[in-house]
């Protein structure tokens, strides 16, 4: 293993509150990038030196070394940055599938999402911008609000607003600049989602951004690989970057876990081996 992030779903698995629960004993971590050092005599899809990422959840990526079947891995091109590779298989894939699978969106259409500063929210902003889709991005008010707004804007966000602004009459002025959303992405629930729904078109899909959607093997692995290569192409073009990351040596994993559970965390903790 080269690097593996700490995601909320990883913490939820450890807490026993996630939909997918591995058999115990288990290694934590569902995402990351490794480099192949040796292969069996019948392995054909990867070779020593290749970079690989998980094709399945529950592989356990918070470790220095592992032995996996080739079916459980997807080969990556080596010309993308390490942190992009380490954070590719969950949030960007989730963002891509939500933008592609629930509504036919085209240039000029708009979507709305809450928790827009999350890892998946940042990926949605960038992929949507590459497709010419406008984004209305809702975040919680916070002490460093302008800093977060500036970062999301730099990624391609068209509009960044707080949850409080959703309830104000000024929202009517916003929709003079951008059409009402055809897709809503929810990462929060409750009142935040209710307020978002007041501003959407009559027919709209509301997608829940929790969970991993990249677990595809067998016949569907070609589809997964195609999506990964599409995202890698966006990375090469500078249209998709890794979220803000803090690299933490694996031996200091406790610090990474503690930091990842703090409120208003603005940097993804990435364990480096």
UniProtKB/TrEMBL annotation:
UniProt entry tagged with the keyword Mitochondrion: yes
Any GO MF annotation of the entry: enoyl-[acyl-carrier-protein] reductase (NADPH) activity
Pfam families tied to this protein: ADH_N
A GO CC annotation given for this chain: mitochondrion
SMART domains in UniProt: PKS_ER
Cellular localization per UniProt: Mitochondrion
Tree of life domain: Eukaryota
Domain Enoyl reductase (ER) intervals: 2-271
Entry keyword set: Fatty acid biosynthesis, Fatty acid metabolism, Lipid biosynthesis, Lipid metabolism, Mitochondrion, NADP, Oxidoreductase, Transit peptide
Keyword NADP belongs to the record: yes
EC number, UniProt record: 1.3.1.104
Gene Ontology biological process: fatty acid biosynthetic process
PANTHER family xrefs: ENOYL-[ACYL-CARRIER-PROTEIN] REDUCTASE, MITOCHONDRIAL (PTHR43981:SF9)
Homology family: Belongs to the zinc-containing alcohol dehydrogenase family. Quinone oxidoreductase subfamily.
Protein name (database record): Enoyl-[acyl-carrier-protein] reductase, mitochondrial
């Amino acid at each position: 293993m080269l690097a593996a992030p700490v995601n909320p779903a990883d913490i939820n698995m450890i807490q026993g509150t996630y939909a997918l629960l591995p058999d115990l004993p288990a290694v934590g971590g569902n995402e990351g990038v490794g480099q192949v050092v040796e292969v069996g005599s019948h392995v054909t899809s990867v070779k020593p030196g290749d970079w690989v990422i998980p094709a399945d959840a529950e592989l356990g990526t918070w470790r220095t070394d592992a032995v996996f079947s080739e079916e459980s891995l997807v080969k990556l091109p080596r010309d993308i940055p390490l942190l992009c590779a380490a954070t590719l298989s969950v949030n960007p894939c989730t963002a891509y599938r939500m933008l592609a699978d629930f509504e036919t969106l085209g240039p000029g259409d708009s979507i709305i999402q809450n928790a827009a500063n999350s890892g998946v929210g940042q990926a949605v902003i960038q992929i949507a911008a590459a497709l010419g889709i406008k984004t209305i991005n809702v975040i919680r008010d916070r002490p460093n609000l302008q800093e977060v707004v500036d970062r999301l804007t730099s990624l391609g966000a068209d509009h960044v607003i707080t949850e409080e602004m959703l309830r104000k009459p000024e929202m009517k002025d916003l929709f003079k600049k951008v059409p009402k959303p055809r897709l809503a992405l929810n990462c929060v629930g409750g009142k935040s989602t209710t307020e978002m729904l007041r501003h959407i078109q009559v027919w709209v899909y509301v997608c829940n951004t929790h969970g991993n959607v990249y677990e595809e093997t067998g016949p569907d692995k070609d589809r997964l690989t195609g999506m990964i290569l599409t995202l890698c192409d966006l990375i090469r073009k500078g249209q998709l970057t890794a979220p803000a990351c803090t690299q933490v040596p694996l031996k200091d994993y406790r610090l990474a876990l503690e930091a990842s559970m703090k409120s208003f965390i603005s940097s993804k903790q990435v364990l480096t081996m």
